[in-house]
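Section 3.1: Structural characterization of target chains.
Under the original work plan, the team committed to producing a structural model for every single-chain target entering the pipeline before any wet-lab resources were allocated. The record below documents one such target. The sequence was received from the expression subgroup and is listed exactly as submitted; it comprises 97 residues.
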Amino acid sequence: MNTNRLLLFILTAILPLSAFAQSSSSSSSTAPDAAELTQLLKDFLAGASRNDVAMHDRFWADELVYTSALGRRKGKADIMRELRAEAAATPAATPKP
């Protein structure tokens, strides 16, 4: 699976949740862990946009089961293996002088 397609799926699934979480106007109705979870989501989206393998590893539960549009199931280990392979194949950006 192409990492860009996975990232697109993740963003499509998570962004509406992020918008919903921010729409609450009453702090008394906010869950106690809302701020921490919102920050984790923001950190994940920032890391995922640059294929940060460590951030993916932190974010996804070990028991994750992802089902692709083609019906193929993958676990966290499969997804992490693909991300690591792509990270190893992608040359690191070098700063321009």
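The beta strands are 65-67, 73-75.
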